[in-house]
Design a protein that fits this description.
Elements lengths: L9 H21 L8 H15 L5 H15 L1
């Protein structure tokens, strides 16, 4: 992180990591095990609900999260 963001303080880096973990946990929490719903739709819904609780990430982060949720729940 320090190489990518050399001006960021240790506190800022810790807060960014904590926010990312919180978002990731929310994605996992909101993944539905209702098998009557399309698998990909469950992934998209989980990320959308997590995004509402964790705004401010780049759109590319949310797109990546869809794939990660799918990978971890296959």
């Amino acid at each position: 992180m320090k190489r990518a963001h050399p001006r960021a303080s240790d506190t800022e880096i810790k807060l960014a990591i904590m926010a990312a973990v919180k978002f990731d946990d929310a994605c996992a929490k909101y993944f539905s095990t209702d098998y009557t719903i399309d698998f990909w739709q469950r992934c998209v819904d989980a990320v959308a609900r997590a995004e509402k609780e964790n705004p401010g990430f780049l759109e590319s982060t949310y797109q990546y999260a869809h794939n990660q949720v799918a990978y971890h729940n296959k």
